[in-house]
Amino acid sequence: MGGRVTRVFRTFNVENRASREISREKPKPAPRHPSTRMHPLHDHPEINEGIYRKDDRLLTFLKDVYVESRDPPMQVKAGGDERLPCKVEEKRLTKLGRFGELDVKKVSKGRISLVEALTILNNHKLNPQIWTAEKIAVEYSLELKEVKSLLEFFIPFVVQEFPKETKKAI
């Protein structure tokens, strides 16, 4: 409904408004600055001649400059199947968890997988006398300082079940 009303006002007297706009005088452009009216080279023809004239002295300088570039000869090695040297990391087999194919099989020395980290934390929590930081460091090829900080700052979750009597009290 609103579209019809606005269309009526838009199209009202369109032809008269258009002819009035066309017949109106065009605005005069702003006056230009005097420096843009004439190019400075038009006043001095000797400058134009100097620009387009060849200078033999400069051409001889240009001809004297000669750059020669040579690439060293390419040497093709006979052993094309050799690979680039790369950093070789020592790997160790992980203590496999219960996820089988999803578990990580090899880990770099000095690192542990997520399953191993949770196992270490759980074993230390259950038997701290047996699973000391020194034993964990030797067994998993870790640094003692890192194992101590792991055991100090990471604690596995604890699930606590409340007896039925205390549930009602809560």
From TrEMBL:
Family (UniProt): Belongs to the NDUFAF4 family.
Domain of life: Eukaryota
Comp. bias regions, Basic and acidic residues: 17-28
One GO cellular component, as annotated: mitochondrion
Organism phylogeny: Eukaryota, Metazoa, Chordata, Craniata, Vertebrata
Region annotation Disordered: where it falls in the sequence: 17-44
Protein name per the record: NADH dehydrogenase [ubiquinone] 1 alpha subcomplex assembly factor 4
Subunit structure: Binds calmodulin. Interacts with NDUFAF3.
Organism: Rhinopomastus cyanomelas (Common scimitarbill)
One biological process term in Gene Ontology: mitochondrial respiratory chain complex I assembly
InterPro entries assigned to the protein according to its UniProt record, in alphabetical order: NDUFAF4
